[in-house]
Amino acid sequence: MYQAPRGTRDILPQEQAHWRYIEHKAEVVAQLYGYGRIDTPTFEDTGLFSRSVGEGTDIVQKEMYTFEDRGGNQLTLRPEGTASVCRAYLEHGMHNQPQPVKLYYLAPIYRYERPQAGRYRQHFQFGFEAIGDDDPALDAEVIEMAWRFLGLLCLGRLRLLLNSIGCRKCRPGYLEQLRRYYARYGDKLCPDCQIRLKRNTLRLLDCKKPLCRQLAASAPRSADCLCPECDRHFDSLKKYLSALQLPFVVDHCLVRGLDYYTRTVFEIQPEGGGAQSTIGGGGRYDDLIAELGGKPTPAVGFAAGIERIILNLVEQKVDIPPLPQPLVFLAHTGDKAGEKAMGLAAELRRAGIGVLMATGQKSLKAQLRQANSRGAPFTVIIGEQEIAAGTAILRNMATSEQEEVPAKQLEEKLRHQIGSGSI
Questions:
Q1: Is 399's pLDDT higher than 70?
Q2: Which tens digit of pLDDT belongs to each residue from 192-206?
Q3: Report for 112-126, 225-239, 250-264, 315-329: range of highest mean pLDDT
Q4: What is the fold, at CATH topology level, of the domain defined by 13-170+226-315?
Q5: Within 13 A of 373's CA, how many CA atoms are on the CB side?
Q6: pLDDT at residue 274 tops 80
Q7: In Å, how far are 28, 184, 230 from 174, measured between CA atoms?
Q8: Quick one: pLDDT band at residue 117, thresholds 50, 70, 90?
Q9: Mean pLDDT value across the chain
Q10: Which letter, b or e, does each residue of 338-352 get, where b requires 16 or more Cβ atoms within 10 Å of its Cβ?
Q11: Architecture of domain 328-413
Q12: Is the pLDDT of residue 356 over 80?
């Protein structure tokens, strides 16, 4: 038997309530802050990601799904959302619009990595990007938006981690300090970090191996090496967050896993969960637009994994509203009743009343069991006798009470029951 590929999963009907709940809250918060939706292609030119994400990152080195199409083009399934949004910003001349341009997306992301709780090789993200302004107030707004989004989902027990990793002016000096520090412990580093020491020094702070984490805790701190501009930016951001009454902790090991980040980086984690349980994160990427061929354009954004959010919703026992279900189950007995039921079902649906109609040749008793199992509050029953009389039987499934109703008054009767809250 065929099965879903490793690291992917089917989202079944009984799971959809969580997904629709999160998507709805994402759209609500996007509207509150003035973000417009953008949908980009699932795959892009491979160079877009290798150039933006960084050749030395694990994503580019190990995790991208890359293929050659029949035209000989190198394409990659989207491993993250920001690069595609920036490409669209450039391609469609959004720099001519009032800045910052605020965009959000809900999209599948593809990475060949070890499947774990809340993270799959195909997973889904909600992300938003604010492009065209370097004001630290915008960083604070993005962080507040991320925090409010999770608050609208009724998630609690979260912590906000914050850091500044500097810019092109001050980061080289900091990286040199890191290299000198880690060079003393080269034989103690894990194999991946031995490679990072040569290719991507900043990512040494991001390793999850216990010994590497211990070394990172005593490593030089980026906040101590910031240039005056970055230092002022970080100081202003912290003041804005305090004014917003957003509690945060400065984590000097926080760097994020993408090369395009500059200055602000942040993550939101469940309390006691650690970095591998991060719900979402983001930061500033002031050099990315220029790296992709545009003019220097500051930007900041955030993304959250939907599967990871669902894990936390379940763990915290958040009450998720059920999806709307059909109100009426339409049962029928006899050949002519089946034809009549088909027309009645269509009439009720046109009136906006959801209907589940029995199929096959089940007995009335079996149809009522089916209606009960589907949770429809009302069952409408039509038989030969009802057809002759121009009526239908309306049964309240909660009380088992039923009454005979003229067929022409059935819609009005159902609407009255709906309006009175009887269902």
A1: yes
A2: 888 888 888 888 888
A3: 225-239
A4: BirA Bifunctional Protein; domain 2 (3.30.930)
A5: 7
A6: no
A7: 40, 16, 13
A8: confident
A9: 90
A10: bebbeebbeebeeee
A11: 3-Layer(aba) Sandwich (3.40)
A12: yes
Return the number of other C-beta atoms located less than 10 Å from residue 32's C-beta. Answer: 12
For residues 109 and 124, is the Cβ–Cβ distance under 8 A?
yes
pLDDT band at 275 (very low <50, low <70, confident <90, very high): low
Query: Has residue 276 got a pLDDT over 70?
Result: no
Compute the average pLDDT of residues 381-390: 90
In the chain, the amino acid numbered 357 is M
Any idea where the domains of the chain sit in the sequence? 13-170+226-315, 328-413
What does pTM read for this prediction?
Answer: 0.87
Q: What's phi and psi for 370, nearest 5 deg?
A: -65, -40
* 13-170+226-315 shares its CATH topology with 328-413: no
Residue type, 25: K
